[in-house]
Design brief:
Length: about 450
């Protein structure tokens, strides 16, 4: 993209000027883990921002200044509302007043583990109904390479307007890492690619106003591939250490000690840690978007499939280790034991239970007849989930010395920082630790079994 492109007159120039002067109004569609922090960052950068969500309960809650996402404190939200910078709505007709429209809706898998683009398609059709000349439309949802140009663009162009001439289309993947205190929406470099040089220029102008560093790549498909590569990299490396965990455990070697020592090498190594299985909306799902798309080219994604196989097998491995530990330490069978699973969220310090291996662990325990409860400071009650409807409504038990002592064993599945590890250690009879949470806090005892 040539800087001169942005200086010639036309709808792109008008939009770029509105962005520079902060007169542009931005819309963020989908106010979840990604969309809400992004909307707050855009509003903080000085843009009037309208947040859209189909869930009226979320819209009402946000408009009272109460956040449901840890990364956006309620005080910050209330302040943005007070300054008239942010407002939530379900009224799609308000899109016609927006200069920039950012799509942050879910991209799950179908029952047959294929990409489910229905949220993106429905949202794009909604945008098309209110589209006007000069709008910048950006897809942020994680998806397979080609989605922006092959799925979003045709729906928008069916209005008769042309991408790169009448409206400007881009892809910019979200890299949010919920619960990570070191990086926030604005400090994580942002990959951006427009459909053509004018769209790249307008998109770059917009994101540069909000995010500290923008990395422009040559096409939306490349930007889509960047995001999916990052997530495949994590899925494959986590699978590798999960496999090593099983092998080293059989050899009597502690995989966490190995990884920490290997991480002392200042080059050529990056630590990944094993666990009870993959969770969240990204790592267990996104790699399979590429698997699906690769089939169109007659190509197999063997690394992805193998990593998926290993990671999916982890909850069963954990349960088999738990069974052995109960037998060896307490002479009890799994089915006759009373177990407290600690940590329901898929990773530490968040409340997100989507795809959480803890749900699978609870399910596997109960299938064996184990009496199982859970404790999670972030999840007081299990919400309805598609795959684990049977767990909906279950409540977190309080942690007290008496309650801990009333269980045969603790299964530590998520290492939240705010758990009372000392109390757990002091009062549990047996601890199966899938995160090395006790080891890294200096607890050593043969009542702690790692798995
Ligand atoms: N959660 C993460 O850590 C993360 C990180 C990077 C990328 N992503 C990607 O970002 C995208 C969004 O993920 P998320 O975790 O924020 O999802 P989420 O489920 O937390 O939020 C999505 C929101 O979109 C709303 N929504 C659904 N359909 C809508 C529509 N037609 N119109 C308006 N609102 C609609 C839902 O009500 C929900 O509030 C996904 O593609 C995901 O892969 C997520």
């Amino acid at each position: 993209m040539n800087q001169n492109d942005l200086e010639t007159s036309g709808p792109h120039r008008t939009t770029a000027q509105k962005i520079e002067s902060r007169q542009a109004v931005a819309a963020v569609i989908g106010l979840g883990y990604v969309g809400l922090p992004l909307a707050a960052a855009i509003a903080r950068a000085g843009f009037r921002t309208v947040g859209f969500d189909i869930d009226p309960a979320k819209v009402n809650q946000l408009n009272t200044g109460t956040s449901y996402i840890e990364a956006v404190p309620s005080e910050c939200l209330a302040d943005l509302i007070y300054q008239d910078r942010f407002r939530a709505t379900s009224d799609e007709s308000e899109l016609s007043q927006c200069d920039v429209v950012v799509i942050c809706v879910p991209t799950p898998l179908t029952k047959h583990r294929e990409p489910d683009l229905t949220y993106i398609e429905t949202t794009t059709r909604m945008i098309a109904r209110y589209m006007r000349a000069g709008q910048l439309i950006v897809l942020e949802s994680t998806t397979y390479p080609g989605t922006t140009e092959e799925v979003v663009k045709p729906i928008l162009e069916a209005t008769g307007m042309r991408s790169g001439r009448d409206f400007f289309l881009a892809f910019s993947p979200e890299r949010e890492d919920p619960g990570n205190p070191h990086f926030h929406t604005t400090t994580i470099p942002k990959i951006v690619a427009g459909d053509g040089p004018l769209a790249s220029g307008v998109a770059k102008a917009f994101y540069s106003a909000v995010i500290e560093r923008v990395v422009l790549v040559s096409s939306p498909a490349t930007a889509e591939a960047v995001k999916i590569t990052e997530n495949i990299f994590r899925a494959v490396n986590i699978a590798l250490v999960n496999e090593l965990k099983v092998i080293y455990d059989a050899m009597g070697i502690d995989v966490w000690e190995v990884i920490d020592a290997a991480a002392s090498k200042p080059f050529g190594y990056m630590p990944f840690y094993p666990g009870p299985g993959l969770g969240g909306h990204c790592i267990p799902i996104d790699p399979f978007y590429l698997t699906w798309k690769s089939r169109e080219y007659g190509l197999a994604t063997r690394f992805i499939e193998l990593a998926g196989e290993i990671n999916v097998a982890m909850p069963r491995y954990v349960i088999s280790r738990f069974e052995q530990a109960l037998d060896q330490h307490l002479s009890k069978s799994l089915g006759s034991s009373k177990v407290l699973l600690v940590g329901l969220a898929y990773k530490k310090n968040v409340s997100d239970i989507r795809e959480s291996p803890s749900l699978v662990l609870l399910n596997l325990l109960e299938m064996r007849g184990t009496q199982a409860d859970y404790h999670d400071p972030y999840v007081t009650e299990v919400p309805a989930t598609r795959d684990h409807a049977e767990l909906a409504g279950r409540r977190s038990v309080n942690l007290t010395p008496e309650i801990i002592r009333s269980y045969d064993a603790i299964l530590l599945a998520t290492d939240h920082d705010n758990l009372d590890y000392e109390m757990l250690y002091d009062h549990a009879r047996l601890i199966l630790d899938t995160r090395n949470a006790f080891g890294k806090r200096g607890y050593r005892s043969n009542k702690i079994v790692k798995a």
